[in-house]
Write a structure and sequence with these properties.
The complex is a heterodimer of chains A (814) and B (689).
Chain A lengths: L6 E5 L11 E2 L5 E6 L2 E6 L5 E5 L6 E7 L2 E9 L3 E6 L4 E7 L6 E8 L2 E7 L3 E7 L7 E3 L2 E7 L8 E3 L5 E6 L2 E6 L4 E6 L12 E6 L6 E5 L3 E6 L8 E6 L5 E6 L5 E6 L4 E5 L2 E8 L6 E6 L5 E6 L3 E6 L3 E7 L12 E2 L6 E4 L4 E6 L4 E7 L15 E7 L5 E9 L5 E11 L4 E9 L6 E5 L10 E6 L3 E8 L10 E9 L5 E6 L6 E5 L2 E6 L4 E7 L5 E6 L7 E6 L3 E6 L4 E7 L2 E6 L6 E7 L2 E7 L8 E8 L4 E6 L17 E6 L5 E6 H10 L13 H14 L7 H7 L8 H12 L6 H21 L1 H6 L20 H12 L3 H7 L1
Parallel strand pairs in A: 9-13
Antiparallel strand pairs in A: 1-57, 2-3, 3-4, 4-5, 6-7, 7-8, 8-9, 10-11, 11-12, 12-14, 15-16, 16-17, 17-18, 19-20, 20-21, 21-22, 23-24, 24-25, 25-26, 27-28, 28-29, 29-30, 31-32, 32-33, 33-34, 35-36, 36-37, 37-38, 39-40, 40-41, 41-42, 43-44, 44-45, 45-46, 47-48, 48-49, 49-50, 51-52, 52-53, 53-54, ...
Helix pairs in contact in A: 2-7
Chain B lengths: L4 E5 L9 E7 L4 E6 L4 E5 L5 E6 L7 E7 L2 E6 L3 E6 L4 E7 L5 E6 L5 E6 L4 E6 L4 E6 L9 E4 L5 E5 L3 E6 L5 E6 L14 E6 L4 E6 L3 E6 L4 E7 L5 E6 L5 E6 L3 E9 L7 E10 L5 E6 L3 E6 L4 E5 L14 E3 L7 E4 L4 E5 L3 E6 L20 E7 L8 E4 L5 E5 L4 E9 L2 E6 L10 E6 L5 E6 L3 E7 L4 E7 L13 E6 L5 E6 L4 E5 L4 E5 L7 E6 L5 E6 L4 E5 L4 E2 L1 H9 L3 H4 L7 E4 L6 E5 L4 E5 L14 H6 L2 H7 L3 E4 L5 E6 L4 E6 L2 H7 L12
Parallel strand pairs in B: 1-55
Antiparallel strand pairs in B: 2-3, 3-4, 4-5, 6-7, 7-8, 8-9, 10-11, 11-12, 12-13, 14-15, 15-16, 16-17, 18-19, 19-20, 20-21, 22-23, 23-24, 24-25, 26-27, 27-28, 28-29, 30-31, 31-32, 32-33, 34-35, 35-36, 36-37, 38-39, 39-40, 40-41, 42-43, 43-44, 44-45, 46-47, 47-48, 48-49, 50-51, 51-52, 52-53, 54-55
The chains are: A mainly beta (814), B mainly beta (689).
Chain lengths: 814, 689
Amino acid sequence: MVEHGDVRVVHKGGSKINFREPALSTDSRFLLCASGESVKVFSTATEECLHALQGHTDLITGVLLRPSNHLQAYSCSLDGTVRLWDFTDGILIRWAKSNRVNIWCCFIYVWTVHLHVCACTELFQLVAVHLPQCGEQLVEAKELSAVLSNISSNPAASAFGREGQYIVSAKPLQLEVYFFKKHKSYSFFLKKDNQKGGKNTFTCITCHPTEDCIASGHEDGKIRLWRNFNHRKEYTYSTLHWHHSAVSSLRFTPEGTNLLSGGVESVLVQWRYNQESQRDFLPRLGGAITHISVSPDGALFCTSHSDNKITIIQSCVKVSAVIQGLVKGDRIRTDLMIEPRSKALVLNGKPGHLQFYSLQRDKLLYNLDIVQQEYIHESGLEQFEVVMAAFDASGSWLATVEERKQKAPELELNLKLWAFDDQKQSFVLNTTISAPHEGRITALCFPHVSDGQTTMLVSTSRDGHFKAWQLAAPAHTEDEGPSWSCDFLGAYHSLVPECCCFSADSSLLAVGFQEVVTVWTPASWELLTTLSQPPGAVRDLCFGRLSCSKYLLGATTSRLLCCWNLLTCSLEWVTSMDVSLLLADPLSENMAAFCFEAGSTDLFVFKPGEPRPLFSHKALCSGRVTHAVFVPREVMLESCDEASQWLNCSHLYFLTQSMDLLTFITKAEEDKLTASSKQLVVSDDVAMTPFHLLLGKHRDQLENPQGSNVSLPQLLQMPAHVLPSASFLCSMFVQSLLISVNKPSEQNKEKEEEMESEKEEEDSDGEMESRISRPEHMPSGESGCAAPALTKEEVRELRRLKKLDHSWMKGLLD
Amino acid sequence: MGEFVVHRVRFFDYMPSAIRAMAFNGSTQRLAVARGDGAVEIFNFADNYFQEKVIPGRSDRAIEALCWVRGRLFSAGLSGEIIEYDLEKLRPRYSVEAYGGPIWTISSNSQETLLGVGCEDGTVKMFEILEERIQFQRNLDRQKGRIISLSWHPSGAQIAAGMIDMIRIFDAETGHATHRLLVERGVGTTRNTEVVVWSVAFLSNDTVISGDSAGKVQIWDAVTGTLIRNHLITKWDVLGLAVSQDESSVIAGTSEGTVVQFQALASTMGQENNQWVRTRTFKNHTHDVRALVHTDTAVVSGGMDTQLVVRPLLDKVEKNTQESALRKILFPHKSLVCCARKAGLLLFQFPDHLELWRLGESSAKGQAGDRLPVMKNPEKLIQLQNKGEDHICCSAVSPCGSWVAFSTVSSVRLYKLQLSNGNISIKKVSKLPKELHSVHQLCFSSDSSRLFASSAQASVVVASLDQLQCKHLHTAFSAFLSFPGSSQPIHLLSASENGNWLAAANTDGQIHVFNLHKLKLHCTLPVYSSCPTAIAIHPTTGHLLSAHADQQIFEFSLKLKEYTAWSRSLQREGLHPLWLQRDTPITHIAFNRNKPAHVFLHDAFMFCIIDQSLPLPQARKKLYNQMDLKTISPQKRMQESHAFKICKMFQHLLSIHLLDDSSLVVVERPLADIVSQLPPPVRQKKFAT
């Protein structure tokens, strides 16, 4: 991404939660999933997002639990860093960066010591990274060793085998197994097609946790279980076949008793390992399954779906929770809109629905069924689609257009008007107008009435007319409420209207009839004036706001952006740019123009009255941007920086061609965000007081019941007849009760060794590490609170004290 | 290559019989296959899966099981008899009544001293294998219900018997049952039907594997009598099991036509805790797989759809070799069609009758490739029904069409046929010489004056034919003494056109040529390692051409008693790799009288004309170049053309004959016709249907 001043393009809100496989915590209480540039921690019980782990500066490409500590998780990102988080508290513990590999890509696999990262340099290489165990927060990973090269870019196509002894990677038609101990790799090839036309391409891979068995999913829906793969020739596989198209994800349960598979059928299949004829199915999960993950305790599974959804499933194959992200199909027909009441983003959701998505809370609020017909999942079937929607300024009316196109002349159109019901807190269908126009509707527009009720709607159509619809009370019956009917039908020289726009005070309506812009007054439906700038049809029309309301801007197909002054009815200025989308900020004079230039889109933010753009961002993303929206801020920013001033009132969200919802963020905002997210609270420089040691020891025992005195209660609980004779036990029992007092001079060397070993224990357990740091090389200057400097002798004495039994203190504390 | 008028014959309703049982002898590499009509076929796996011998069936003989004991072949069936076969005379040597009702299974212990049979009345009977005979020894404890399957422990101390709803394990010493393993019935509606244990296998590590009618393959511990693992592999029956020699792999055949492989694999590397895991599934059959054999390198399966399928295990053989190719043996490697080439008659041999047909005629002329209208339809002249239970083993019609002979294992019948303007009269020749009583192959001389028959004593009988008598002329006994101990049956006979020579070949690969004037042995060809599949003597040059099971071709000059120059150059340059890769043997050789250099050969999928005047194809050149030759210029065609001209237009060929009027008779049997006569397969739900 290109940095532009201090404004940056980020994924924020509405990002994909199905991009990578989510991770379930060991106790199955939390779900970690990569969502844009943050890792979101969801509660599996309540489906709520607890917090987001912020810090990465680019798309996160993998989340994984740390095997040695179940409270920590790794994440990796396109920004080239791997971060270690305490996900329960949302604390960044450590992060690693490498200078040698240009872009770290894709995904991580962790096995105890080594962290395997797929690095995307020129080749796709799987690299083993040794993370140095030191206390600093930022470490540089220097030890890199390539394990496999030219692996698939799909993270599901590589997996660790039993106890990390080998790693398996699948290329399109090849399975490669690399044994770490023997440094030997075996490759197995499949034919491209079998006789029946099935495709043998590998799609995903997983390994059995306790046995040497690799399960691979294939394009034709087969699952193969590979065994004996440490032989070049005598390897063997068995085939399971239920899926009718490609298997997209495979997982073994932690005990290895079951194999889970999923694909486009959106059915989770559970196969019994070694009893493969027995299967369980969980059908009708919604979108196609893209990932499956299993919690380490086996209590929960979760499946990611192509409609940006995560389903949490109990191990008895029952759905327990659904986490829904912003639904993004392959195509969005409606504009991005903001519902004025809830400030929710509204766009196409499920087929035939509008979704209301809260960007602030990053949560789907609800779906509104517009079509109100059952959607049939069958390819090639033409069904009603919501193609257009518009809200009025107060949010009390919603107009939708749905269409079904069977053949070109038989276009079925419905215009529906929905009123907001205060009691139901939802939109209720008021009027259905079937066949409002003879041709496809090109634009839909409510006037901006700041006070009172909206009573007008304008729609333009390809049949050459624009229609004004009026809300009117019914004449003959009393019990029905007001409904909408056609008030005015306008046309201009039988040209096709393409777009329409109300001025800020709704006193003018501009309708673009190909090359000609006509300006009407809605009060009397008089044609006031026509403006024209041939050649090129007008594609977008937009009135200026606030102080610039005298300007009308129009983008034409001949790559021109024109600005007319309505007071003088003359062209104010014109500039040459291929505007694909023109947008006005409702809260300021600013306007945004997305221009398509050489395969990518540029953004210009400007005021119609001023010739210089406020902000410009070249090469925002590849492809055309056709959907964008200004989202009003809840709290105004007070930024004085010129380049970011335009973001003070509103966010600008836009949708790229690859259906990523992106937005702009200022430096100040970002700083505020990172400041608010918790830093490493317990740092390395906590003073080593005697009390801390005592208490630490006590906590230690609470957490680790297998302390030194385990044998005593065990001894007492054992039935007498299985114990050895009392005389044999007596001395040991008495000794365990004694407080050992040894001469420190004798024990010094031994202690030192013990300390070494203790340190290693601490390293392996990061939870401990953060609390008990190394007193020997304690950084003194780093911390603000002055730690009392202890001499070596004192530390040793403290250590010795720590060794003693302080269980009596427990009694006192309680 | 020349143009021919082709009679494309599809009215031979040849129907092979279903495969019921198989047994493989690993030391001699011979596979014995029992068919539903009681016939037993012996295939030599060491010699390109050539069908060496066929023991004709009997209509009352229903073989249920086969067993090899040191090169001796035993069978048992529902008739309640144990039969040992004489593999030289190709007939049962003796039969022993077991007195236990129908016998379902037969199995010998690995020491090959005892033969156990499972009977309908619930007894397992032990027979001692003696040098010449078998003798009843004793019964094991009698059980309720029939004994369906038997398997000996390799030590010979225990024997497992599959029954209805259970498996019994007997102590072979005491004869008492030590374990009773109850086999669970199927679920759902099949819960009320009893489950039949169709097959058991007893492994040396005291594991019993069973396949049953509920579709399960179960693995049992024979020491404790407990079920270790249960694999449900089909909704229908598991009909057969076979274990590899090293007991690391087991295959199971099902009613769906699939063969499922199980392998004993270590679940974690480097450990010995082997588990039986279902691995591969082979689907090469449409119907029940009744019989299975697990050789070291391949899975051999056969069943209701009459095909014998050899599916190599690719982890045991080298890739892309001849061994790694799948083989399906559809047709017998011996022609069942005989042609009277002067009279235009075809004789079809069925197990219990013969059919004589007159070919159709057409007077129209046409371009190459045209289909000519038939003026006179082919006509079935005679159907000769065989009397008695024994099936026909060979038959012949004389070239002039006036004599028809056939033989069963017990007798030879000869008929005189008179065809005169629509009237057909047939007369049985009553008094045949007594040497002609049991023959393996029949052949008429080209002038129809003599009948040659290879008799069971490894000799050739020559009989002269008069108007209505068959006077015994001579019996050539002395001929086959060159090979001490070789009394193998003669399976090929061929007389020369001029009546001078008679060539005979036996399954040991010996080819002898007799001088018919002197009635004595003329010469013996050098013995080639592979068995001859077809022999013929050239009418003009007097060369003997022989084709062998490994697809080699030899030409031997009878005058000079040595291989001809063409044969030597063929051996020197070698045959084309594609030619050697064909998997069906050449079953007939013929010559074109108009073009002496042309030799006609055919197998089941092609027929070939070898032009001995043209150069041999080189290995890197294209073998099937007929289409290419058509497109290039005549001058270049001369350079490109080679001796092998192959036509693949006709498929599933049973026979090709060249008539005297230079028209070609092609007898085809399309597979679809055979399949349509099979009973419907078990119903299976197919996805998206």
